Amino acid sequence: MKVYVSGATGFVGGHVARELREQGAEVRDERIDLLDYAGLERVLADCDAVVHVAALYSYDAPEREFERVNVEGTRTILAAAQAQGVGRFLFTSTAGTCGPVPGRIATEADEPPSLELTIPYKRTKLASERLALAAGAVVVNPTTPVGDGDSRPTPTGRMIAGVARGRLRAFVATTGLNVVDVRDVARGHALALERGESGQRYLLGGVNLPLEELFAVLADLAGRRRPRLRIPYSLAETAARLGFANADEVKLARIPMYFSSEKAASRLGYAPGP
């Protein structure tokens, strides 16, 4: 199988390309601007499948960049794939398009809170996911991938580095994350490419952890003191209003971001490790 992986120089995309190669696929990973239609047509020629991982994951980039990369880029690569007769399209979205849901664990049947759609990253990922679903793509929704290779880093990587280096000493007490090994996310992509149903989405997650517990695990692994200072959400909101914290990241910390991967487990054979 010939597969083009967009975003293969990035954190998740790099692991996806490596996993597909290990499973015997012929992977093309040339970096093409997502608005370069001619370039995309060229690289997609004779491909059996596209895995579209490339996206702008940030909470401080200009809003027009989110629209350009996440929405228009997805629209362009979908059109190029259709023009080249590519038979399979796998789109990498985010768990944030499935929730979170107050008071319970979210699934693929859920939607993000309307309040969070004021966040450009989340709004544009939802818009691009809907374009992919309408085109018959298979969609995967990773939760919070962690692991080797997050070198730029992503917002998640910056958080982990802050704890591991002993610089992040506090946490917002109201939230938590579903954390997953990025290698499991890559395996989930391979499973979805092989077994996923067109027009369906599959959450690829690991374990749900309160932020306090997650930070404790990270600090212990790094040999650092555990962050102990619990910040009430109201104080985090005040810090964001005064410019001492990122307003979008604070908005996301309002409730725990917990998700279930049961659908991927039962339908794809997805089985994340610890």
Explain this structure to me?
The chain has 274 residues and is an alpha/beta fold. It has ten helices and eleven strands. A six-stranded parallel sheet has the order 2-1-3-4-5-9, sandwiched between helices. Strands 6-8-10 form a three-stranded mixed sheet. A two-stranded parallel ribbon has the order 7-11. The chain is globular. The mean pLDDT is 96.
Write the layout of secondary structure elements.
Elements: E1 2-6, H1 11-22, E2 26-28, H2 37-44, E3 49-52, H3 63-83, E4 88-92, H4 120-134, E5 138-142, E6 144-146, H5 155-164, E7 170-172, E8 176-181, H6 182-195, E9 201-204, E10 207-210, H7 211-222, E11 229-231, H8 233-241, H9 247-252, H10 262-268
Parallel strand pairs: 1-2, 1-3, 3-4, 4-5, 5-9, 6-8, 7-11
Antiparallel strand pairs: 8-10
Helix pairs in contact: 1-6, 2-3, 3-4
Q: In which range does the helix fraction lie? A: 40-55%
Shape: globular
Question: How many E-type strands?
Answer: 11
The proportion of strand residues reads 15-25%
Average pLDDT, all residues? 96
Offer a few descriptive terms.
six-stranded parallel β-sheet; alpha/beta; 10 helices; 11 strands; 274 residues; three-stranded mixed β-sheet; globular
In brief:
The chain has 274 residues and is of the alpha/beta class. The protein has helices at 11-22, 37-44, 63-83, 120-134, 155-164, 182-195, 211-222, 233-241, 247-252, 262-268; strands at 2-6, 26-28, 49-52, 88-92, 138-142, 144-146, 170-172, 176-181, 201-204, 207-210, 229-231.
